[in-house]
Amino acid sequence: xxxxxxxxxxxxxxxxxxxxxxxxxxxxxxxxxxxxxxxxxxxxxxxxxxxxxxxxxxxxxxxxxxxxxxxxxxxxxxxxxxxxxxxxxxxxxxxxxxxxxxxxxxxxxxxxxxxxxxxxxxxxxxxxxxxxxxxxxxxxxxxxxxxxxxxxxxxxxxxxxxxxxxxxxxxxxxxxxxxxxxxxxxxxxxxxxxxxxxxxxxxxxxxxxxxxxxxxxxxxxxxxxxxxxxxxxxxxxxxxxxxxxxxxxxxxxxxxxxxxxxxxxxxxxxxxxxxxxxxxxxxxxxxxxxxxxxxxxxxxxxxxxxxxxxxxxxxxxxxxxxxxxxxxxxxxxxxxxxxxxxxxxxxxxxxxxxxxxxxxxxxxxxxxxxxxxxxx
Length: 376
Prior knowledge:
about 375 residues; alpha/beta; Metallo-beta-lactamase, Chain A; seven-stranded mixed sheet; six-stranded mixed sheet; globular
C-alpha cells in the first residue's frame, strides 16, 4: 500500500485544466520547447544498460561517509550578510534569505525510489535530522523525480504550516500525501508566488529535463528551475536540467543573482540534454552571470556511471579558468556567498583508496529514473 501511495497521483479537474492551458503542453504531455544546443548530447555515447548501471563504472561510491558538520549552532544566529545557504546533500539546501528560510527539494528518505527496500540507496546520511530543522517559511520542489520529491519526507513536512511551491502538476502528488490544497502553489514558467507578509518571491523558470514517477506518467508534470528573491538578495536553483540558452533569458528577466545552485552530478555524455554535469554547469553559470556557484546534485546517491567525486574534482580544476567563484562547503556547513572562502578539497580527507562494492547500495529491482530516455 505504501509503495502505491508513493507513486503519487495524476492531475484532474481544475488542476488538469490549468496544465492543458500551458504553452509547454502538447499531445497530452509537457515538452522542452527550446532546441537542444549542438554537441550537447554525445551521439556516440550509448545509453547505459540496467546491468551497466548496476555493476559498471569505477569508484561510484565513497569508501566511507563523507565529512559533515552539524549546522544547528550556526543556524541559531542570523547570517551577517542576510544570505546563507546550507547544502544538506544532493539537491536539498536550506536557504536563509533576509530573515526567511526556504528548503529546496527536501529528501531525507533512504532511497531514490518508490520503495524503502529496493532502488538506489543513499550513501551519505543527511547531516541533520528532519525534526531538528529550524522553523522554515517555504518548501520548493522543482519536479517529481524520486531524488527530488521524496514521499516519506513530504509526509513529515506536511505538518509544517508553510506553503509548498512547485511546478505544474506536482501538486497532485503533494495533496495525495496529505499536504492541504490551500498550501500548495503550482507554477508554470515565469509565474511567481509571493510569501504573505514577507518580501520574498519564488519564480519558476525554464529548465531542460523531463518528469514522471512511472512510465505511464512520464512528462505529465512540469519541471522547473526556481528563483528565490528578497528585497536584497536573489538565488537561482537549477533543479535538474541540461544546458540551454534559456539561461541567458533567465538572467535578463530575473537576475542578477548573488548565488547560483547548479546540478553537477548524476550525469552521462548521453544525457547532455537533461543533466548538466560539471563542465556544462560552468557554462550555465556564465550564461546566468551569477555571483557565487554552489554545486548540488552530487555526494549522496550513485545515479550515474562516473566516479562519485568526479564532479567535484572537475570543478576544482576548471573553475579558475572559467572565472567561476566556487562555494564548496562540507555537508551541513552554512556558508554566506558574500564571505565565501577558498575551496578546500574536503571530500579527499581521510578516505581510503578503495570504495565498497556497489551491491551494497544499488539493486536491480528498480530502474533508476536517470536511465530513462527523454521523450522529446
